[in-house]
Description:
Elements: H1 12-16, H2 32-44, H3 50-58, H4 62-67, H5 84-93
Helix pairs in contact: 2-3, 3-5
Amino acid sequence: MSRFEEQDGPGLVQVLAQVPDPRDRRGRIHPLPGLLAVAVAAVVSGQSRVVEITEWAADLPDQVWDRLGAARDRFTGARRVPDDSTLGRVLAELPPL
Length: 97
């Protein structure tokens, strides 16, 4: 089994989909589970600052990008990498667990 094949039980994105999104519905570009999955994967990979996380995300292969549930432009299919201010704001808005 490759590391990207389905495992038993819910995957990271499915678990993160249970986190309530604190943002207003209008103007959302990036789905919260995708943002959080990218952040978690980046931190596990050694990134610690928001700017490092977004730079790491920009370098992801398409297969990983899609697997993490990150956003793509609905018209062109191009990656919609969040900028560091967007990611930082979203992470700061999340309630503590």
